[in-house]
DNA sequence: CGCATTCAACACCGATCGGTGAAGAAATTT
DNA sequence: AAATTTCTTCACCGATCGGTGTTGAATGCG
């Protein structure tokens, strides 16, 4: 990668095109998104796509990264809340909101992008599973820290609490894909955190 | 359809073959399961498949029905528990178990079969969404009945409670697809039902 | 200018997709 | 046994899959 550009610069906004690709993967899943679907949505040719992003798997990885920094940014934001309970509340509220954003696909790219897949989608499926596991580890580490700070009872199990909260978020994603509203899902989030920490 | 058979009878067990097809759809999703994958697992030819089950969509519908009567039978069983709380407990315990059955694909066919899909998988996706919605309606009706029987408080919202319980089950399915164990998920179920009914 | 690089567009690649047509064997009827 | 029907096997269909090679114009650099 050179700092000084040589040759004709690309004639499209790489970030904007990636955003379009993200939405196609989000709505149709990795295997359900064909190169034709992608290039038409991104407004570029196949050649430009491969030159700018690599192959389909690479594009999917970059789209997921973009998702994490965009609609999925509520995760890192929630982790910075002052107390463990506020972390959980912000995480689930953000989940309810991000999974039902108007004008964007319903649900979560990290869940419906490739939960089950054939041979061609196996890499994408594993990438997403690892991504979800990573998010759960971030929650667990945050709850560990809360135990040490006395914010959670000494006997609390951070891994178990993280799994509990993440399971709700996963369920919220499936519900959103089925048409549940943000209010519906916020009610679920409230109910799930009614007793805290979960036994 | 005639009662008396005419001509050569089929040379394979249609129920056993359907079970195999169910497992392929379960593990690979609708779009990820090719006809070659299906026929190889079922041990029959393409021609036999089309003669016996129709097309791929029809086969998927029959596989889902088979799933509901087999690994998914815990749903109807749970609905028969004597109290609303026992219904919810049996439903989530069954979910934890059915999503982690040894020797079978992890997760739930109704969730990972086609959460997001391209054009070719749109029908399958809608079939599954309707299937999940139907299960949620069964829960809602059971909880309505519990309110009338005084088993749930008069102010309880059956629809909200059903959505809460189903959201946990959906999350359990995603967690199972990511490798969570039955014990992990049973802990989540216990925590989710710690306060009942959910506020 | 001239070199280098990327642009857009399009045909094309082998492979695979879901789905069928043809042909002969096999089993049940009368 | 003859007739009928469905079986199985295999090749094949057009379409689409992800990915590439080519071409000629456009735009940056030195």
From TrEMBL, chains A, B:
Taxonomy, superkingdom: Bacteria
One Pfam family, short name: TetR_N
Annotated DNA-binding residue span(s): 34-53
UniProtKB keywords: DNA-binding, Transcription, Transcription regulation
Domain HTH tetR-type: 11-71
Name the UniProt record assigns to this protein: TetR/AcrR family transcriptional regulator
Species per Swiss-Prot/TrEMBL record: Actinacidiphila acididurans
